[in-house]
């Protein structure tokens, strides 16, 4: 069965990318502590890549939150419209004339 909420499709991707980013930063730190010589350009390049990956994760997570909020508001609006007690008149012209006369 498919997930009913399409915004939930972001969650597995977010979890995977978050784990990859954390493991990537961890491996970079372990390699740098164990004595692997990185040049300043390598460190700057890795830092830029990690910042870009973190920004992309933040952007997708923000989009996920926005979709969830939109879905909640849409559901609330549809429910409020459907729950209203206004009924459409069977004869619109008679209804308009009644409004004009009063």
What does this structure look like?
The chain is an all-alpha fold. The protein has helices at 10-33, 40-82, 92-101. The chain starts with 9 loop residues before the first helix and ends with a helix. The mean pLDDT is 79.
Which SSEs are present, and which pair or pack?
Elements lengths: L9 H24 L6 H43 L9 H10 L1
Tell me the helix content: over 70%
Q: Which structural class do you get from the secondary structure elements? A: mainly alpha
**What gross morphology would you assign?**
rod-shaped
End-to-end span in angstroms? 56 Å
Number of helices: 3
Give me the count of strands: 0
Report the sheet with the most strands, covering strand number, pairing sense and barrel closure.
none
- The total number of structural domains is 1
So what's the oligomer here? single chain
Main features:
mainly alpha; rod-shaped; about 100 residues; 3 helices
How would you concisely characterize the structure shown here?
The protein has 102 residues and is mainly alpha-helical.
């Amino acid at each position: 069965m498919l997930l009913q909420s399409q915004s939930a499709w972001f969650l597995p991707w977010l979890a995977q990318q978050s784990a990859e980013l954390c493991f990537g930063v961890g491996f970079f730190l372990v390699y740098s502590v164990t004595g692997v010589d990185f040049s300043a350009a390598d460190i700057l390049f890795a830092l830029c890549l990690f910042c870009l990956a973190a920004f992309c994760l933040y952007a997708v997570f923000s989009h996920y939150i926005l979709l969830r909020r939109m879905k909640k508001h849409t559901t609330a609006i549809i429910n409020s419209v459907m729950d209203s007690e206004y009924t459409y008149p069977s004869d619109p012209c008679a209804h308009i004339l009644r409004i004009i006369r009063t």
